[in-house]
Give the backbone structure.
Amino acid sequence: MLKKTAVITGASSGIGLELARLIAADGYNLIVTARRADRLQQLAEELKSLHGTTVSIIEMDIAKPFAGDSLWQAILSITPDVDILVNNAGFGEASSFADESTENIERMIHLNISTLTSLTRQILPGMIKRESGRILNVASLAGFQPGGPGMSVYYASKSYVLSFSRSIRRELSGTGVSVTTLCPGATQTEFEETANAQGTRLFNLAKPMNAKAVAIAGYRGLVLGCGVVIPGLMNKVLAYSVKISPTALALEINRFLLNKKH
């Protein structure tokens, strides 16, 4: 019996790495992508040794314009049939909008929004035709917020991911294809460093969750066909408290949390 295939973006570290381990342990072959091929090679060797998993590596910068189409062509050269799609790749930057580089802004929008959307669009018809498939889009607790002063573009991009995922999930009702959105809060990954978020109250006031725990929650939700997965009790409280909080208050709290202590 042929193994099924899962595509995972941003699989070289953090939540994406842990999801790759979980999915491989469940018997899937993997197609993984990131800019750091050396890390992906280490992952491939680990998973082959543990599970006999075939891991196909696509070294690509998917934060560029039309990267979703290029990535899909690379996937097609391996297989046209994708059973699980995990859109995990993304990044943020802790900075006032006026101080962010325009290059980083463009790359963030392309990676967090455009590539995710395009790749989903390319893979989805095959899933619908086979009446089977699962999609996991990694958003953030930030997606529930009205905005994030200090990380404005990142928060807006994650709101898009949550809204987009909820919408296509409803469109796909009855097709055999499910869409799950994973919305973690602060997590122990490289994000804090790469986003220049060290020292922000967001990461200092509460202990970030372990990446493996977040991945387990996300994968369980994917398997069960859940709509939205929010790992951690406190994160659930924070997500739903926004519904009863005045927008101005929520924005001020986020501004406080995203500022660095002096």
The longest helix spans residues 102-130.
